[in-house]
Design goal:
With about 375 residues, the chain is an alpha/beta fold. It contains eleven helices and 14 strands. The structure holds S-adenosyl-L-homocysteine and iron/sulfur cluster. The site of iron/sulfur cluster has 11 residues, from helix 4.
Length: about 375
C-alpha cells in the first residue's frame, strides 16, 4: 500500500500520472486531507467513484498512532506519538507540543526518534538515535494536533479552514536537518496552499548547525531559521554542542550570512540555553556580541530545563537579566523564553518520548522517560 501522506504535491502529482490520472488530482486530494481533515475516500465527493475505488485498493492514509494526549493548566497540550521501528518491531515514541499565545498558536514538531548529535544539556540527545521520522509521521503530527484541537472547547465552533495552529517550529525531538528530505517534503506541505498554507515566516526550523544542509535549505525551502548557538567560543561549543567540532562557529556564522540572502526574514534567531556557570557570564555575553557581529539576528535565551542526571543547573534570574541587558544594550532584540506546560513536561528540551537507542548510548545514562 502506498501511503499518500508521504507525498508532497509534486510527488502526489507524479503518483497520479503514474496510474494514468491527471496531476490536478493531487491538489484535490490534498485539500480534503489537509484543509478538511478528511482521510476517508468515500467523503471525497469530487473525486470520481472509480478512482476512489482504485485508490482504496492501492493506497492508504496511514497516520501515526496517538499514544497519549495531555493538557496543561496553561493551555499547552502534548501528544505522545508512536513511532514504532517497522523493521524490528521495537516501540519508540516522539512528542508534539501545542503552545497557545495571545496572538498565535504554535506547534512544536519532532523530526527524529532520538538524536545522534549528543548535545550534553539535551534529554533527547542523551537518549541516542533510533531513526528518522517519515514524511507522514512529521506532517501527521500537524494533522493530528489540528484535528484534536478542533474538538477543544472554544475552538469547536471554527470553520474547517480557520487556523488554530498559526505557526510551526521544528524544535521538537531530533535534528531536522539530519532528516533533510523528509523534513523538507513535510514543510512543503505546510507551506502549500493546498496543504496548510502557512507562510514561510511562520514555519521555523531550528538546527544545531549542519552547514551543508543549511546551504541546501536556503534553495529548497527557505523557512525562518533558528540556530542553536549556546556558546560564544569553539572551546566551549565543542563540548556542549559537539557538532561544532565539524562545523565550527566561524563556518556556522558564514552559513547564516549566506542563508539570509534567500531567507523570508531578514534575521536569524540565535538560541542560547542558559546553563548556570557554564556559558552565562558577562564575559560570555561580550564574546557572543563579537561572534555574531556580521549576522543580522535576534536572540532567544532559553533558561535550561533540568532533567534527571543532566549535571547542569539553570542560570539564576539575575544572571539571565544581566546577560540579556548586555545584548539589548548593544541594540539587539532579545527574548527570554517562558517555560510553558511544565506540569506535563512539555517544556523545551524536556521532550523525552521513548527512544530505543540503536547506538546503545543510553546504557551509559539512567534512562529518562517522561511517562
Ligand atoms: N535539534 C535542533 C532542534 C531541536 S532542540 C536544535 O538543536 O536546534 C530545540 C531547542 O531546545 C534547541 O535550541 C536546543 O538546544 C534546546 N534545548 C535542548 N535541551 C534543552 C534543555 N534541557 N533546556 C533548554 N533548552 C534545551
Ligand atoms: Fe539533537 Fe538538538 Fe538535542 Fe542537540 S539540542 S542533541 S541537535 S535535539
Amino acid at each position: 500500500m502506498t501511503n499518500l501522506l508521504n507525498f508532497n504535491q509534486k510527488q502526489l502529482a507524479d503518483y497520479f500520472i503514474s496510474i494514468g490520472e491527471k496531476p490536478f488530482r493531487a491538489k484535490q486530494l490534498m485539500r480534503w486531507v489537509y484543509h478538511y481533515g478528511v482521510t476517508d475516500l468515500d467523503q471525497m465527493t469530487d473525486i470520481a467513484k472509480v478512482l476512489r475505488e482504485k485508490l482504496g485498493n492501492e493506497t492508504s492514509f496511514n497516520l501515526p498512532e496517538v499514544q497519549l494526549e495531555q493538557a496543561s493548566d496553561d493551555g499547552t497540550r502534548k501528544w505522545l506519538i508512536g513511532a514504532n521501528n517497522q523493521k524490528d518491531g521495537t516501540s519508540s515514541s516522539v512528542e508534539t507540543v501545542f503552545i497557545p499565545e495571545d496572538d498565535r498558536g504554535t506547534l512544536c514538531i519532532s523530526s527524529q526518534v532520538g538524536c545522534a548529535l549528543e548535545c550534553t544539556f539535551c534529554s533527547t540527545g542523551r537518549q541516542g538515535f533510533n531513526r528518522n521520522l517519515t514524511v507522514s509521521e512529521i506532517i501527521g503530527q500537524l494533522w493530528i494536533a489540528n484535528q484534536s484541537l478542533r474538538k477543544v472547547d472554544g475552538y469547536d465552533m471554527l470553520a474547517p479552514t480557520d487556523r488554530i495552529i498559526s505557526n510551526v517550529v521544528m524544535m521538537g525531538m531530533g535534528e531536522p536537518l539530519a532528516n533533510y528530505d523528509n523534513v523538507v517534503s513535510a514543510m512543503q506541505i505546510m507551506l502549500d496552499d493546498h496543504g496548510y498554507g502557512l507562510s514561510r515566516r511562520r514555519v521555523t526550523l531550528s538546527t544545531s548547525g549542519l552547514v551543508p544542509q543549511m546551504d541546501r535549505l536556503k534553495e529548497d525551502c527557505p523557512v525562518a531559521l533558528a540556530v542553536s548557538l549556546h556558546a560564544p567560543n569553539d572551546a566551549l561549543r565543542d563540548v556542549i554542542v559537539p557538532i561544532n567540532k565539524k562545523y565550527p562557529i566561524k563556518e556556522l556564522m558564514a552559513a547564516c550570512e549566506r542563508y539570509l540572502v534567500k531567507a523570508p526574514r531578514d534575521f536569524v534567531t540565535f538560541e542560547y540555553v542558559m546553563l548556570d556557570g557554564v556559558n552565562d557570564t558577562v564575559e560570555h555575553a561580550h564574546q557572543l556580541l563579537d561572534v555574531v557581529k556580521n549576522v543580522p539576528c535576534k536572540f532567544n535565551l532559553i533558561p535550561f530545563n533540568p532533567f534527571p542526571n543532566s549535571g547542569y543547573g539553570t542560570s539564576t534570574p539575575n544572571h539571565i537579566r544581566v546577560f540579556r541587558d548586555i545584548l539589548m544594550n548593544a541594540g539587539y532584540v532579545v527574548t527570554v523564553r517562558k517555560t510553558r506546560g511544565e506540569d506535563i513536561d512539555a517544556a523545551c528540551g524536556q521532550l523525552a518520548g521513548k527512544v530505543l537507542d540503536k547506538t546503545n548510548r543510553s546504557s551509559k545514562f539512567i534512562p529518562i522517560e517522561v511517562m
